[in-house]
Amino acid sequence: MTRTRYSKDRGLTTRMVTTMFLIGLLYVVLVGVLLAVLGKFWPVILIVAGGLFIAQFWFSDKIAAFGMGAREVTPEQAPELHGVVDRICALADMPKPKVAIADSDIPNAFATGRSERSALVCATTGLLRRLEPEELEGVLAHEMSHVAHRDVAVMTIASFLGVLAGLMTRIALYSGLSRSASNAGPAGIAILVIPLVSAMVYAIGFLLTRLLSRYRELSADRTAALLTGRPSALASALTKVDSQMARIPTRDLRKAEPYNAFFFVPAFSSRESLGRLLSSHPTLQQRLDQLARMSAELARP
């Protein structure tokens, strides 16, 4: 974790390290299967996989910001938003990230960046229009907690390894080698096993990243509330944003779904129970219960 006044979360650190280790282990298993089957074609697989991994690590934050239509704004263009970010940076003793606004009615916020130098915090116009200043401060403190804990970078890498597993399998199957599956023998059987192994890697990786993502959201709520000293303001923002999601057109929510892992609140309608089940975030009630306990603790003499 970067040295800031955000409280350390050893549970989050442990989960990040464990998730990366397990997903990396799955990835090694998949690569081993591919190398055993592909033989002389293994350099192509490794070069493509390595190139995509580097591209994802360096450009994922820019892709997410571009996809949400985030545009960087100056203090003159958005003085109130910059003022909130300045206050949080002073409280946390951390460098100021780039500040952006996304022209969207979906009330949300997100942070991207591999480090503090490349960090960007963005709020949508829908969020700025609906929240009070203390509520907005709680939301942005939550997002900047992700930057301080560096869990944004970890989630990006962890998610990509699962995607990479599927991509590598497609390369194997469409490289012309799949034709040998029609031949009797171990090679044909092995190639038929590749899709099954890839599916297992993707499914396990998906579950691991979802578990990590839910915990990191609770951690960000907790550390943001401790930093600002106002858990009730963050709870109020959560309730308000979640209730407003049901009023957003389903078409707009579906467009935003690919970026749910970055969002303060996932872009799901409350009616979508399946979406809630597989959500990258804990339930609203879990988050509110945690903040209520913190409010009670802070109120004690």
UniProtKB/TrEMBL annotation:
Binding site for Zn(2+): H142, H146, E217
Cofactor(s) recorded in Swiss-Prot or TrEMBL: Zn(2+)
One of the protein's GO biological processes: proteolysis
Cofactor remark from the record: Binds 1 zinc ion per subunit.
Membrane topology note: Multi-pass membrane protein
EC numbers on record: 3.4.24.-
Gene3D superfamilies in alphabetical order: Metalloproteases ('zincins'), catalytic domain
Record bears the keyword Membrane: yes
Descriptive protein name: Protease HtpX homolog
Organism of derivation: Streptomyces camponoticapitis
